[in-house]
Amino acid sequence: MIFVYILCCVIPFYIWWKIRDGFRIHNIDDKYILITGCDTGFGNHAARTFDRKGLRVLATCYTEEGAAKLNAETSDRLKTIQLDVTVPENVKRVSEWVDEIVGSSGLWGLVNNAGIMGTLAPMDWLTLEDIRQPIEVNLIGLIHVTLALLPLIKKAKGRIVNISSVGGRVAASGGGYFSSKYGVEGFNDSLRRDMKAFGVKVSCIAPGLFRTPLSDPQTVINQRIQIWHKLQQDIKDQYGENYIAVGKYFK
């Protein structure tokens, strides 16, 4: 009787263990994953983490300093290249570089992390260029990188992870940042549907507010102060002289 009882306990555990083991990624030492925006923040942390796990990381950095620092602190499995996602020639060069490295195996993973906050301020304080800048990086740049690398990802039946934001669900301020992240959510849903037939998995991560260089509250306040000094007097009168001080609750 005791044996039957033990057996009844062991069998469900064994089944659970086999299912859990099925979710593991095997042969990770020959899988390549490209991560954009690896100078600091989430991208830097992801590159280091995947490198420690044994994956072959292709990390793009915006600056030479960021690339050099990441190279110095990771294994020789990790390779870096500079990338400005808003420059088409840069994106083409990186896609050719990736193609040379991964060869016939294709690109197993793409993490679209590169992004900027841009200027967060009331819309009628901003120029079209202020609004355009984060959209060009966070949305158009993300789409361009994805389309450039998609043939390699389809070849590997890989996966794409797009880093959105809680700001892609709720707009907490004016500026192009929130519009860009709403766009990322829409692009992600369209791409996931299109790629399902090819065995490519598409996911979206929407982090909340984390303490990274991207979301430094003092930077937000300083940007608003700079814009405030350039505003026409009638706009200042509409908002009131204490508007910036009240806005410091972002800290």
Automatic annotation (TrEMBL):
Origin superkingdom: Eukaryota
Keyword Oxidoreductase: yes
SUPFAM superfamilies according to UniProt: NAD(P)-binding Rossmann-fold domains (SSF51735)
One GO process term, biological-process aspect: steroid metabolic process
Keyword DNA damage: no
GO molecular function per UniProt: oxidoreductase activity
Keyword set, alphabetical order: Oxidoreductase
Cross-referenced Pfam families: adh_short (PF00106)
Family recorded in the similarity comment: Belongs to the short-chain dehydrogenases/reductases (SDR) family.
Protein name per Swiss-Prot or TrEMBL: Dehydrogenase reductase SDR family member 9
